[in-house]
Amino acid sequence: MQFGIFSVGDVTPDPTNGRTPSEHERIKAMVAIALKAEEVGLDVFATGEHHNPPFVPSSPTTMLGYIAAHTEKLILSTATTLITTNDPVKIAEDYAMLQHLADGRVDLMMGRGNTGPVYPWFGQDIRQGLNLAKENYALLRRLWREDVVNWEGEFRTPLQAFTSTPRPLDGVPPFVWHGSIRSPEIADLAAFHGDGFFHNNIFWPAEHTRKMVQLYRRRYAHYGHGRPEQAIVGLGGQVFMRKNSQDAVREFRPYFDNAPVYGHGPSLEEFTEQTPLTVGSPQEVIDRTLSFRTTVGDYQRQLFLMDHAGLPLKTVLEQLDLLGEEVVPVLRKEFAVGRSVSVPDAPTHGSLRAVQEVSAA
User: Rounded to whole angstroms, how far apart are CA atoms 150 and 159?
Assistant: First the structure.
């Protein structure tokens, strides 16, 4: 399994002192968090993509390219690449370039985002969101897999004898996850192409997550890519830790209560009971995360959201120390126990290249 963190890049006031970081501070903090992730032995750092305040990561490839130059092992990913409002030609070129710069340590997560106004900002109609996702992704796949593309669709100008440059590293396109919280159509799209499905279940109860992942697994098998347990699944999660749970709850409560995404709604206790949010000791985080396997079966990637709601950088870095030193080593060991040999590892550039070489032999 791969373990890592993802960031939505929100610029949120710290409710304990009222201070709001500048955009510059927040961008630099995201970089520091990514570098810390490699330092403590995590596998993945993923950034969201947003084009509106109060978020800063409007250019994921710029940020990930910088991080690539300062890391050696970390897989660089997106928590959302907006397949609906980005030109698939530009996605193909930008992420192939990043793939070369990072020596293959790149994958990405396709999504539609959750900000309605972004569609007209980029000349698109939100009512066509699903159709845009399907058409744009079908074109992206061809751009990465065919040296010369002739194409005509509904939502962009035709292409005639077009070659996307640079070509993917070693002729192996970046692995793609399709991220969704509530759309079965996206789970089916991931299954149709034999791609990964990432259920970012940070706001949803376990039963909803179970249904979405089961749908993806069934459709993956239906489309002939393998048995259901061979489908590639990732999950989101949120944690806040201190050595004892009482300190964790006391410290995190003001951030939870005032967070734009879930503040002023259900209580912290209600939210932790009904969703994957875990606020407590490292052992509580271990126990809760291990329970996800009961919900979805063996899976390949677990990402945690840890730098949101106005938490100061110092606190986030402390969280990463706990995650890397006390939580992830135990999770790696425990998730390996009883894992069927038929369950594949999370794809990497090296593993995908090996499969391609075998197929070509």
Answer: 5
